[in-house]
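Q: Could you fold this chain for me?
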Amino acid sequence: MGRTHDMPPSRPRWRTYLVEVLALAVLFVGRASLADHYHVPSGSMEPTLRIKDHLAVDKRAYGLRIPLTHVWLTEKEPQRGDVVVFDSPIDGKVMVKRLVGLPGDRILFDGESLVLNGQPVEQRFTEEGVRLELLPGALHPLDPEPYQGPEMDEVVIPPRYYLVLGDHRGNSADSRVWGLVPRENLLGRAVAVLYSPREGLSAGERWWIPLRTDEGTGVDTRLTR
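A: Sure. Below is the predicted structure, expressed as structure tokens.
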């Protein structure tokens, strides 16, 4: 009779389960604390973000949190002009807006333009009719409509709070409506439009549209089409 070949020992079932559980845990922690994606549900950030845009969100941008909590283990300071993803201080829904006010700032909005620490923030129109706001360090587009209200009386932003506005200010419920965003509510920084179904883009142009240049001096033209 032929010699029977030795069969390799089978892995205990509990080890298989353990590997699967660990893989799921790594995936969960990664999405909760490192990176994630988010789809845009409203037009409050037009023209920068359009409804159904998919965003790539860096959840490490402002430090590391304990997953599913507002407890920060490490912290990094947000930058003016960031497109931030956060839990609404009113109902906890995830929202996306532009961060325009940092702790210590004095800010008012007169219905058309921001006044930051006593100085109006310049706006200009391009030859194509795109309205740009020259927010310090973060040039970005605004909706071109003349009315950008509601207005907002001057506020002084306290420590660990931030003022956020939509780029379509005439169609955005933001800090003018429900107040400031606590530091603990920040979830991450949107770094790019991962995919956009907006009209006017070719198939190849729909992927990875950066939301901010390193110098803060340019705007990707795909965001204004």
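A (continued): Residues 16-35 have pLDDT under 50 and may be disordered.
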